[in-house]
Amino acid sequence: MTQGREPSSSPADPQPAGAHAAPGSTAFDAPAPGEAPTAFSDAPSTAVDPREEPTAASLEERLGHADRYDFVDPLDPDRREVEPIDDSGSDDEITEQLRGQGVKIGRGGVTPAVFYPAIGIVVLVTALAMVFPDGTGAVLESIQGWIVRDLGWFYMLTIGILIGFAVFFGVSKYGRIRLGRDGEKPEFGLLSWFAMLFAAGMGIGLVFFGVAEPLTYMTSDPKPGTDGPPSALAEQGLAQTFIHWGLHPWACYAIIGLALAYGIHRRGRPVSIRWALEPLFGERIKGWLGDTVDVIAVLGTLFGVATSLGLGVQQIAAGVQSIGIISEVNNTILVVLVVIITLLATTSVVTGLGAGIKWLSNINLSVAGLLLISLIIMGPTVFLFREMIQAFGLYLANFFQMTFDTAAYTGEEGQTWASSWTIFYWGWWISWAPFVGVFIARISRGRTIREFIAGVLLVPTMVSFVWFSVLGGIAIHRQLTQGDLWHEGGEAIVPEKALFTVLSDLPAGPVLSVVAILLVAIFFITSSDSGSLVVDMLSSGGHPNPPLWSRVVWAFLEGLVAIALLLSNGLTSLQAGSLITALPFSVILLLMAFATLKTLKLDHAMVEEQKLLHRAEAISEHITDSMADRVTGHVNEQFAGEWGEVLDDRIDYRISRTRAGRVDAGRGRTATGEQPAVADPDAARKRGGKPPRKG
């Protein structure tokens, strides 16, 4: 019978660990004398001291990495690749990208269902206005009267709602959402971005109404319901001007700009108004519904720009008359000026965006800044700053009352005043919204929604406040001190002439008048150039580099519409045209606000869900790793402190007997021929074990 395997040495004379181990056998090597046990392995221990607490930095680091977010289109989760249309690609590549998103591009690079209906409507209205100017003017005025009488409240409410949405988007939890990929840096630096917003905030209207509007509210046409001495009317009039040119118009632009910027930079959609309504209408926006939205946007932009061009050409003519170049202003002069400046704008179109609009915009800003600084220095400087601060306080105090003033208690007089001023402005701003919205959306990539709203609402608003405080303030000061700009019972203030009348009384008046004429002309050119670009993009399915031929067509049509409106009763028709085209687009703006809210809710929910899951995984991994380290360290400590001495000798015995060699079953000897050692039963008992069983 086989002999039992006995220890090769007694505890009093232990053998070095592994002395009898076969080469490469390390799985159960015992530690050398005085060494700590190594959990049955000679590999370095990675256990953490169980008495050490998990470090907070480790958990914070895990949670920091857990805030990552892989963007998924909230409206189309299966659409993983979200890449904006590549502006630098070839026309064929961009066209294929557009078609891949459902845009129907036809021959010539335009969208037939948008381009041709819009062209047809514009040509029809223009032809009717030129052939039947008096009849067209009467029809426009009749429609305007109906809108003001029956729907004026709707315009007032719409603007108020848009302001509420804009402020909410900026201060809410959605303000952290980035218009682009998460972590993406803004495309333009902060100062450059502010400068471009400033450029967007400047326009022909600021020059046209800069002097006339505050002066009119003080003198010939104060708002019904306001009364008091001229100084009180002046203060109230400047505050009312702030309402017309401050947060209210820019809330319209902020809503459409945000909707477009989110779609373009975050969801990779084309530059087209229809996509802002996709959250509400889904796939239907790719069909006739989307085409209708884009046609309305094209018409609104075209008539809005044409209104500005009509105002601008009237002021240029008045300026040329004021410096003695022409003796009187008539329709022939106005038409000639429109044709000349439209040709200049078309030249800018042909030279391209970079060489045309860029340089004209830079010149524009420089000239506007030069004129403003000159007027501050040459005018009553201290009075200008004092009246600006005082009017701003009145503006804040009466903000809500003036926002929702529907002239309910001022009768026909109040309705007439509103149609000429407040409601006209709301219609003008809404019709301009696609143009300005596309511009600010394209330059805002990488901004958070909070940055976008703050910049769009505050920067142009403050520019407008300063502008009207300076130009209007000079006129108000002159009227209060000299009283020669308007006399009681005199004719109404003529907006296009008021600026040059005020400039003529300042040092270097003729030079400043020339600068003002140049400023209006450049505004005219840049408005026509930029307007034709936006209209062309909308009628080309959102192509960032639309066909040159169609852009030239739109530039000419803008000039023709301006001529047609001027021939159909001048300023009144211009105001009516803006108000009418703004009516359908005001509904679209409201739908955009709700659509954007829906999209941001989905986006935020998906972001928070992913982050929550990642944080849960990070915490779970941290707890698992910490507990594993604690348990391993605790086991090693207990093993070394309580069981080490008892088990070490037994392990030594088993290992030494196993590695000493095989026992010859037939002769009772080891493979080396030596007699097996006999264990001491008493020694085994002393160690707490049993004596080896005899064979």
TrEMBL record:
<feature type="compositionally biased region" description="Acidic residues">
    <location>
        <begin position="84"/>
        <end position="93"/>
    </location>
</feature>
<feature type="transmembrane region" description="Helical">
    <location>
        <begin position="453"/>
        <end position="476"/>
    </location>
</feature>
<feature type="compositionally biased region" description="Polar residues">
    <location>
        <begin position="1"/>
        <end position="12"/>
    </location>
</feature>
<protein>
    <submittedName>
        <fullName>BCCT family transporter</fullName>
    </submittedName>
</protein>
<feature type="transmembrane region" description="Helical">
    <location>
        <begin position="242"/>
        <end position="264"/>
    </location>
</feature>
<dbReference type="GO" id="GO:0005886">
    <property type="term" value="C:plasma membrane"/>
</dbReference>
<keyword id="KW-0812">Transmembrane</keyword>
<dbReference type="Pfam" id="PF02028">
    <property type="entry name" value="BCCT"/>
</dbReference>
<feature type="transmembrane region" description="Helical">
    <location>
        <begin position="548"/>
        <end position="567"/>
    </location>
</feature>
<feature type="transmembrane region" description="Helical">
    <location>
        <begin position="191"/>
        <end position="212"/>
    </location>
</feature>
<keyword id="KW-1133">Transmembrane helix</keyword>
<feature type="transmembrane region" description="Helical">
    <location>
        <begin position="152"/>
        <end position="171"/>
    </location>
</feature>
<feature type="transmembrane region" description="Helical">
    <location>
        <begin position="363"/>
        <end position="385"/>
    </location>
</feature>
<feature type="transmembrane region" description="Helical">
    <location>
        <begin position="423"/>
        <end position="441"/>
    </location>
</feature>
<keyword id="KW-0472">Membrane</keyword>
<dbReference type="InterPro" id="IPR018093">
    <property type="entry name" value="BCCT_CS"/>
</dbReference>
<feature type="compositionally biased region" description="Basic residues">
    <location>
        <begin position="686"/>
        <end position="695"/>
    </location>
</feature>
<keyword id="KW-1003">Cell membrane</keyword>
<feature type="compositionally biased region" description="Basic and acidic residues">
    <location>
        <begin position="49"/>
        <end position="83"/>
    </location>
</feature>
<feature type="transmembrane region" description="Helical">
    <location>
        <begin position="508"/>
        <end position="527"/>
    </location>
</feature>
<dbReference type="GO" id="GO:0022857">
    <property type="term" value="F:transmembrane transporter activity"/>
</dbReference>
<feature type="region of interest" description="Disordered">
    <location>
        <begin position="1"/>
        <end position="93"/>
    </location>
</feature>
<feature type="transmembrane region" description="Helical">
    <location>
        <begin position="113"/>
        <end position="132"/>
    </location>
</feature>
<feature type="transmembrane region" description="Helical">
    <location>
        <begin position="333"/>
        <end position="357"/>
    </location>
</feature>
<feature type="transmembrane region" description="Helical">
    <location>
        <begin position="579"/>
        <end position="597"/>
    </location>
</feature>
<keyword id="KW-0813">Transport</keyword>
<feature type="region of interest" description="Disordered">
    <location>
        <begin position="662"/>
        <end position="695"/>
    </location>
</feature>
<comment type="similarity">
    <text>Belongs to the BCCT transporter (TC 2.A.15) family.</text>
</comment>
<dbReference type="InterPro" id="IPR000060">
    <property type="entry name" value="BCCT_transptr"/>
</dbReference>
